[in-house]
Design a protein that fits this description.
The structure is a homodimer of 326-residue chains. Chain A is of the alpha/beta class. Chain A has 2 domains: 188 residues, inorganic pyrophosphatase (n-terminal core), CATH 3.90.1640.10; 118 residues, Diaminopimelate Epimerase, Chain A, domain 1 (Roll), CATH 3.10.310.30. Helix content of chain A is 36%, strand content 18%. In chain A, the strands form 2 sheets. Chain A has a 6-stranded parallel beta sheet with strand order 3-2-1-4-5-6. A 6-stranded mixed beta sheet of chain A has the order 7-8-9-10-12-11, with helices on both faces. In chain A, β8, α9 and β9 form a beta-alpha-beta unit. The two termini of chain A are 20 Å apart. The relative contact order of chain A is 0.10. The interface between A and B is large, with 46 and 46 residues.
Chain lengths: 326, 326
């Protein structure tokens, strides 16, 4: 069951990476589109660390910081305007992803590129690469890096890194929660992160419209041989005054039913298309299923877009899933 | 916000307690009625430790182990028959509570009594008392005790203690999650506890009837000035083939709505009575409110029983809560 078992020794950042950061003066930190807590928290903590070293930093994401992450310290440093960041000829640091396409960097070119990530490598990009695919979160790498640089973890770094790690481990509920993850979390609490405050921001700030949307979506639940399917329509968004952003994490919630192996949520995108989000408890590799429909993702979380009527889309997907689930 | 800030030094059990455990040969470990994960996990881990030292142990709870805790290693050691435990003239260890009434010990008397707990003291009971009211869980104390006794933490002890601590901290989401809690959790993972397996047992084993009941209950939600009220009727239990045990944690769930300060669930007990469960986000002391109705509990979790029709019960409670919420 256990996938990795970490050693009691702490992770250390490559010394080449530390030297590269110390040598240059200006950095553009870019992370993936539709950024999550790990992307945002890691980037903000790294930017603060580089600022402590007297460096200029610029934080770029194609998409704005979602409102649910407005509690992250210094989140306003993020910009959606890449051009502003390209002045001063910065070194690129690609964080929590490893190809320029995932970060929507377009045709921008850089004199030097660095990759810090924990995802499977998409392709060999980057002059300097630190990719730990067994690490639970990019936040774990950035924490190790800040320590390797000899810097003190400030309260705001601790809050950003704790959030990064909490989000990518389901606040210590997923199989990537190793003893090292928990020890790192302990250090961040010691440095000033408050677990209850962060958990409240992450899990207890639904507005009432979102709660009503949630009940509507859960009321659509159908079960078929280990698969739970829900859907959300444009009409539901209108009725509750919500948007797609409010469905964050909804796809995961039917996993709590004991015989559900895969949970699927279809979301109407308003143009005769449905976006399917697949979540697996670990038995089925949903990335392989999503790929059959032109999508992709991770083993336990993947997605794709399909056009046509919902009933047909459900039928086709169930057929593909039944093969995987055997 | 932070209530306590632990020191990096580890908690140690009183040496008098260690000596007492080493000296005697037979122990009855009793915990509170309606046992939760902390009561059960702590008791099972302590019993295993005493067994390692060659002691006879007997585990008593008035109520059977709830089915959701059947995953706890060696849970079948628990008995609901106190008389069986009274043979051999045992020393009493009262765990996760501190008065014999809370453990339904009736008129039983003991030649020696020990209390190990983290709740506020109800009264001065016990020849030997170790009560740490700032500890997040009794599991934290038992972990320290096992280490102080010089014993190795086995995989089953680790699983029981990790569960104990996880349950009482909301898997590291409540304000009692200190750095020491997380470091202890890390040690338990190192010793063999698997966070994802335990989290799946705690949160992802709802049968479908329970899920349907959950939606029915959430669909009853009403909001009044910071209070969210839900209810569950005997008819709902019948329709979904569920019992009161299936409502475990339901009272907490409306807390996720941002403007909810107190969540209340009324449960029909079948005899013209309603059991009210009150959960506070921290602003209101619901124990004081419950006491007005002859109930009690903690600051953030309390309850009471009221007879009559539901609409009247809601009205009376809302009036009492509005005074507290100011």
């Amino acid at each position: 069951m256990r996938q990795t078992r970490s050693q009691t020794g702490k992770m250390r950042a490559p010394s080449k990476l530390c030297s590269a950061l110390l040598k240059d003066d200006c950095f553009l930190i870019a992370t993936h589109i539709n950024p999550d807590g790990d992307a945002l928290g890691s980037a903000l903590a790294l930017a603060e660390a580089l600022t402590c070293l007297g460096k200029k930093t610029f934080l770029y994401d194609r998409d704005p910081v979602p409102k649910y992450y407005f509690f992250l310290p210094k989140h306003k440093k993020f910009s959606t305007d890449l051009n502003k960041g390209l002045k001063n000829d910065p070194v690129l640091i690609l964080l929590d992803c490893n190809s320029p396409e995932r970060a929507a960097l377009g045709a921008a070119s850089f004199r030097k590129t660095i990759v810090i990530d924990h995802h499977e490598t998409e392709r060999e990009f980057g002059d300097l690469r630190w990719v730990e695919k067994h690490a639970a979160a990019t936040g774990m790498l950035v924490h190790a890096l800040i320590r390797s640089l000899g810097l003190k973890i400030t309260v705001s770094m601790a809050e950003n890194l704790y959030t990064a790690i909490a989000v990518d481990t389901g606040t210590f509920r997923y199989s990537n929660t190793t003893d090292e993850v928990l020890r790192t979390a302990a250090e961040l609490v010691w440095a000033g992160a408050e677990p209850n405050v962060i958990a409240e921001h992450l899990y207890e700030t639904w507005d009432y419209g979102r709660f009503r949307l949630y009940l509507m979506v859960m009321n659509t639940l159908e079960r078929r041989e280990g698969v739970a399917i829900t859907h959300v329509t444009a009409a539901m968004f209108r009725k509750t005054g919500t948007t797609a952003e409010d469905t964050e994490n909804f796809a995961n919630l039917p996993r709590r039913i004991n015989d559900v192996k895969v949970a699927v949520m279809f979301r109407e995108t308003g143009s005769g298309e449905w976006k399917a989000s697949l979540r697996s408890k670990g038995g089925a590799n949903v990335a392989l299923v999503a790929e059959q429909f032109g999508g992709g993702g991770h083993r336990n979380a993947a997605g794709f877009t399909i056009s046509g009527d919902l009933a047909t889309a459900k039928k086709i997907l169930l057929k593909a899933l039944s093969k995987t689930l055997g």
